């Protein structure tokens, strides 16, 4: 209502000419001379320049830390109703949260805050929006926000080291570890074979075991792959030499027997001995 005095009469009437009335009065005054309505908008994070830049993140990024803005009533009267809104082509790429500014407004000298941040799950691209605080009695305050989402960049192909592997000797323990750049996640032999007795750990890249042969050079190709699907392959050679004293292969060894096998062997020997010492029975043929 405009400034002025407003009056009315409220009457309650019933049968038998019974009624009661009451006069009502309401006065709207003009603001005191010099009254003002005003707000200030403070971007509390280091007083960033416009637009506030949320930086650049790769597709699949985690939630970002919101920017908190403070709105203060700097006028001489309550602000009246206020609203915080997003506008612009990319307004839907951002969200407002923890908003205690929107609504009935701010009392004299009071402050309120709200937070703004990019939403998660955005596709690669550049996003800009305008954040605005407005009300019927105050001058609109606003600032810009910006955010860039970059596409996933595949990791470079692994670089495998060392360039060559040490030689081995038949019957002697052997170990060598392959390494690669760009965080390889798996190793696999894609061609050729390792010397007999050696194996490749497909997780760590370690080649270990005891060479059994053959004497000579064994060639094989190893591929290292990383989590983004890039890979690289290198061919290696391992020279296997005979053991000291000659020979072209591993010296045969008698396998160790466990207790159960030893008991079975003892029983078989006892039965064999019993048959050998038992008296022989002969029968005379009738004529």
How would you describe the overall organization of this protein?
It is a single chain. The chain is mainly beta and 287 residues long. It has 1 helix and 19 strands. The chain has a 4-stranded antiparallel β-sheet, with no helix packed on it. The radius of gyration is 45 Å and the shape is elongated. The termini are far apart.
Layout: helices, strands, pairs:
Layout: E1 4-13, E2 19-28, E3 39-43, E4 52-58, E5 67-73, E6 82-87, E7 94-97, E8 111-118, E9 125-135, E10 141-150, E11 160-161, E12 168-169, E13 174-177, E14 179-180, E15 184-192, E16 196-200, E17 206-213, E18 216-226, E19 231-241, H1 259-277
Parallel strand pairs: 4-10, 12-19
Antiparallel strand pairs: 1-2, 3-5, 5-8, 6-9, 7-8, 9-10, 11-14, 13-17, 15-18, 16-17, 18-19
What is this structure, in a nutshell?
The chain is mainly beta.
């Amino acid at each position: 209502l405009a400034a002025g005095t407003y009056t009315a009469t409220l009457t309650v009437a019933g049968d038998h000419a019974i009624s009661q009335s009451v006069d009502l009065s309401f006065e709207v005054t003009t603001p005191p001379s010099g009254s003002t309505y005003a707000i200030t908008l403070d971007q509390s994070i280091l007083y960033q320049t416009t637009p506030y830049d949320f930086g650049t993140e790769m597709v699949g990024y985690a939630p970002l830390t919101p920017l908190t803005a403070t709105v203060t009533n700097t006028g001489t009267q309550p602000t009246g109703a206020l609203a915080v809104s997003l506008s612009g082509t990319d307004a839907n790429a951002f969200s407002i949260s923890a908003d205690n500014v929107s609504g009935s407004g701010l009392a004299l000298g009071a402050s309120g805050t709200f937070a703004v941040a990019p939403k998660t799950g955005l596709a690669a691209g550049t996003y800009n929006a305008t954040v605005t605080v407005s009300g019927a009695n105050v001058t609109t305050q606003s600032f810009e926000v910006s955010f860039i989402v970059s596409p996933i960049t595949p990791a470079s192909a692994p670089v495998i080291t060392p360039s060559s592997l040490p030689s081995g000797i038949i019957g002697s323990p052997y170990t060598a570890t392959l390494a690669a750049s760009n965080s390889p996640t798996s190793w696999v032999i894609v061609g050729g074979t390792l010397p007999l007795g050696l194996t490749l750990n497909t997780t760590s890249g370690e080649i270990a075991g005891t060479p059994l042969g053959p004497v000579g050079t064994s060639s094989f190709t190893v591929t290292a792959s990383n989590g983004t699907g890039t890979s690289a392959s290198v061919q290696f050679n391992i020279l296997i030499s005979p053991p000291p004293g000659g020979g072209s292969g591993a010296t045969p060894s008698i396998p160790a027997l466990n207790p159960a096998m030893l008991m079975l062997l003892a029983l078989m020997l006892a039965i064999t001995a019993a048959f050998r010492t038992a008296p022989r029975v002969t029968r005379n043929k009738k004529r």
